[in-house]
Write a structure and sequence with these properties.
217 residues, mainly alpha, 3-stranded antiparallel β-sheet, 7 helices, 3 strands, 53% helix, 8% strand, globular
Length: 217
């Protein structure tokens, strides 16, 4: 019997117990790297440059500057028309005595306040522009993009007047022409600033931050 088993041979039976023999060399490094990698990180794209702007963030920045350009262009064109056609002329009634166009020069802040602090208001407008530009890098909310775009366009509109109009650089008088009954005369830049400010207040009450996160107190 023993002789028959020697001639036929016994089949190789894999070991059912015991650890797998350790590997050495390059194959071992590859295996270790594969087992330690996080598959979810590879799928989600983590591990890259955290400071790189996301595509969604870039779209929000584009919306911000698009709104700012439109607001600034409308304000600039309207002031050019008012200076050319309305200044030194009689006011034009739009809705009777309730709304009229009346060109004036305003050395103060919005709606004619603080005429003795022209330079201070100029510096504030420049500071607002810098803050908005810095905040845009972390902007992921569409409503905030619209609000900041209105603020930026309005601030640029009035700042342009303060730099380039008489009586001098940083002391220029802003062109105002929208005159509702019983209210101060203002312009489209003032309107954009006020609308942007109101929208920011509403977003803050709703707990929406510029980065898109929502929090509740």
């Amino acid at each position: 019997m023993a002789e028959a088993e020697r001639i036929i041979g016994t089949p190789d039976i894999p070991e059912t117990a015991g650890p797998e023999p350790e590997r050495s060399g390059p194959d071992a490094d590859v295996t270790a790297a594969d087992t330690s990698a996080d598959p979810t990180a590879a799928e989600s794209g983590e591990g890259g440059d955290e400071d790189a702007p996301k595509p969604k963030g870039r779209r929000r920045i584009a919306v911000l500057f698009a709104v700012a350009v439109v607001a600034y262009a409308l304000d600039l064109v309207s002031k050019m028309i008012v200076v050319a056609k309305l200044e030194h002329h009689e006011p034009i009634d739009i809705l009777g005595e309730w709304l009229r166009f009346n060109a004036i020069r305003n050395a103060g802040a919005a709606f004619g306040f603080g005429e003795a602090f022209t330079i201070i208001f100029t510096c504030i407008a420049a500071g607002v522009i810098v803050v908005i530009a810095r905040l845009a890098r972390k902007l992921y909310s569409l409503p905030w993009a619209i609000a900041l775009g209105l603020l930026l366009g309005g601030a640029l509109g009035n700042l342009t007047d303060r730099i380039f109009r008489a009586p001098g650089v940083f002391e220029g008088a802003v062109v105002d022409f929208i005159a509702p009954k019983g209210f101060a005369v203002f312009n489209l830049a003032d309107s954009a600033i006020v609308c942007g400010g109101i929208l920011i207040v509403l977003l803050s009450f709703r707990g929406l931050d510029p980065d898109g996160t929502v929090h509740k107190d």
